[in-house]
Amino acid sequence: MHWKKLKALGVGSYGTVSLAAPVDGSSTFVAVKSAEVKDSSSLSMEGGILDALKGSPYVVQCFGEDVSVESGKHTYNLLLEYAIGGTLHDLINMYSKSKTMVEESEVAYYAFQLLTGISHVHRKGFIHCDLKPSNILVFPTIDDEYGSIVDVRLKLADFGLSLRTVENETHTYWDRGSKKCRHHIGTLLYASPESVARGIHGKAVDIWALGCIVVEMITGRRVWSCYESVDDLDFKITHEEPVIPSNVSNICKDFLVKCFEKDHNWRWTADMLLSHPFIKNSTSGKYHPEDHELISNKVIINPFSHCESWVTKGHLFSTCFHLPSSDNFRSGYAIFPAENAQCRMHNVELLNIW
To answer: Which residue intervals define the domain Protein kinase in the entry (predicted)?
Structure first.
C-alpha cells in the first residue's frame, strides 16, 4: 500500500512531522517524522528507543520505519500513531484561553499517567531528558454514541535526546569541540538544578521536569515565568526554590516538594510518587493504579503490517517512478533495531535545545 503526506504538523531540529494516510482514501491516519537520510541519525536513534519501549499505554507507539525517495531526496521516515488531541501544551493553552484551569483531581490523574510512563521508561533503562508539555501527546477517548470525550490518555513522546541509564552512575557530558561541560540536555525551563549546575543527568531529571509540568497544568504558567536572561534563568534554577502554587491542597504541595527536592539523590522516584496520596487519592475514584492497563487501553493495530511488530518498509512515500534497488537505496544509512539502541546513542551528537 502506498501512503501520502497530507500536511505538516510541526518542525524541529530532527526534521518535520507530517500527517499521513493511505492513497486509497481509507480513514487511517499516522504521524510521520521525517529527515533526509544523511541527517537522520538522531531520528533513527529515537526509533530504536521507541521500539525498546513498546508495551506501555503511556508511551507513543512507533510502528516502524521507512525510507523513500521524496522530491528527489532519500528520506528516512519514522511511523508513529497520530495524536488527534495534539499536545499537553495545546491542552493547557486551551484552558488558559477559556480562563479556566485544570482541576486538581484531573491534574493528579494526568500526573498518574505521566508517572506510569516515566516509570516504564526508567525500568527499560532510559532517561527521557526533555519532558515538557509539548513533548506529551493527548489521545482523547470518544463516546461513539454521544460524540463526547469520556477520557484523556497522555503519552510520552519525542525521545530524541533520551539517554541510556548506567547502573550506579550519573551522566556528565562534555562538548567535544569546546572541551567544556554541557550543563544540561533538553529544554532549560524544565531542567533540574543538578543538570544545570553540574551536567548530571540521571533519572531524577525527569522527576523535576514532571514537577514543572504539574505546576504548569495547575497555574497555566511555567515555573520560571519571570527571568531576564538565560544566565538569570540558570541562576534561578540552581539557587532558588520553585514557587509552589498556594491554591492547592497540602497533599498536592507535598507531592511537588518531593518532585522539587534540590538534592537529586533524595528526590522521589517515579515508583515512589505513584504511591503518594496525591496520586493514590485521585485514581481511587476512577480505578486502582494496578488496573491502569485494563482501562481504555485498546490495542492499536499496526497499519503497515498484519502483525504488531516493528516493520521496515521501503518507498511508502516515494514520489518518483524509477527507484533504486533496495540494497543501493539503503547503503547510505543503517537500520538500527532496538538491541543496538545503546550503541546508537554513543554515536549521536546530543543537542542542547532551548
So the answer is: 3-279
